[in-house]
Amino acid sequence: MVAALIRGKPDAVLGLATGSSPMPLYEALGAENLDLGRVRGFSLDEYLGLGSTHKHSYAQVIRREVVDRLGLAPALIHTPDGEAADGALEAAGFEDRIRAAGGIDLQVLGIGSNGHLAFNEPPSAFTSRTRVVELADSTRADNARFFDSLEDVPTHAITQGLATIFEARHLLLIAHGHRKAEAVARAIEGPVTEQFPASMIQLHPNVTVILDEAAASKLQRA
Ligand SMILES: N[C@@H]1[C@@H](O)[C@H](O)[C@@H](COP(=O)(O)O)O[C@@H]1O
């Protein structure tokens, strides 16, 4: 789907997720023999306090795993600045850049074990825009595996809001493993509620969810 989008629109605008879930997608995209030099991209989120050169910043992850791996043009890929002096101003500027690009064609998403999308922790308003948020303890614990210790995981982040994500023309949610099964079932079959941000996808007109058997194992109507 991603390759087909880019073949039809070489300057497509992708929303880029970090985390482990989308990595196989990025690897597979690399095998497609596509010219990705005109593709534009916007990261979902960034840790607050980690600069773009910090090895655990999402800017660096996107740089390593997406830009360098796939030959994207660095100038066309935007990640919120985690070291911005004014987080609200940075968030507003990020929204402006998405709008100026004509919006996101396809937003790649993972799902947090607590039902977060990007860093929109429960509860998050469906009307929320890009903003500074505090991370849930469970999210910091989940992500500690990427850091040297739990203490090193930042406490805050800048994240695209749920309304920002919802405006993407196509949502592509990827999850694998038993660890995600409960969250996937609640997102797809549970009540649509701001208490469980990922349930918002039920309201979007164009969503694709890619799961392995383990992540799908708690769906009642599969
Ligand atoms: N902020 C990120 C999300 O954008 C990501 O989708 C999610 C799942 O991560 P993973 O794919 O590693 O399970 O949690 C992280 O905290």
TrEMBL record:
A Gene Ontology term for the protein's cellular component: cytoplasm
GO BP: carbohydrate metabolic process; glucosamine catabolic process; N-acetylglucosamine catabolic process; N-acetylneuraminate catabolic process
A Pfam family the protein falls into: Glucosamine_iso
Residues of the Glucosamine/galactosamine-6-phosphate isomerase domain: 3-204
Domain of life: Bacteria
GO molecular function annotations of the record: glucosamine-6-phosphate deaminase activity; identical protein binding
Signal among keywords: no
Keywords: Carbohydrate metabolism, Hydrolase
InterPro entries linked: Glc/Gal-6P_isomerase, Glucosamine6P_isomerase, Glucosamine6P_isomerase_CS, NagB/RpiA_transferase-like
Protein name: Glucosamine-6-phosphate deaminase
Organism: Arthrobacter oryzae
